[in-house]
Design goal:
Histone, subunit A; two-stranded antiparallel sheet; TBP-class protein binding; 4 helices; transcription; extended; mainly alpha
Length: 146
């Protein structure tokens, strides 16, 4: 079953359906992006002697699913902002660049666009808060001879 979400895009539901005659269930709840075997293979590539708990495996799977879900949601919003019904690589790329500073090679231009964030420090903030004082308002020269 599919429905339109709040962004106007079609999404499938994760509900399970029960067969009336057999009593078996089928659905998308059992499907994950990574299974525990894939997580273990990735860890063995990093360190063949490392062992992790099942809770850590579950947490890594959950983090991967949340990453993909947030990326897809933001990419759909970018496509909708462009007034398009199709998500393109530039929609995904924009989200990954701006959110995670992540550049995926092979998509778009080879030279990533650099942008600077405005950085402020405490001294600059304090100087901006103080009122501008002119040197001509009721000031006496400090180097005057008496």
């Amino acid at each position: 079953m599919a429905y339109r979400n709040e962004n106007g895009f079609i999404r499938s539901t994760n509900t399970t359906t029960t067969a009336a005659t057999t009593g078996t269930t089928t659905g998308d709840n059992d499907r994950t992006l990574l299974d525990k075997r894939a997580i273990q293979e990735l860890i063995k590539q990093v360190d063949p002697m490392m062992q992790i708990d099942e809770e850590v495996e579950d947490m890594l799977i959950q983090i991967a699913e949340e990453f993909v879900d947030s990326t897809l949601t933001a990419s759909c919003q970018n496509a909708k902002h462009r007034k398009s019904n199709t998500v393109e690589t530039k929609d995904v790329q924009l989200y990954l660049e701006r959110t995670y500073s992540m550049w995926v090679p092979g998509f778009g231009t080879e030279d990533p666009k650099q942008y600077k964030k405005f950085l402020t420090n405490d001294a600059l903030k304090a100087s901006l808060k103080t009122p501008y004082m002119s040197s001509t308002t009721n000031s006496k020269p400090s180097n005057s001879k008496q």
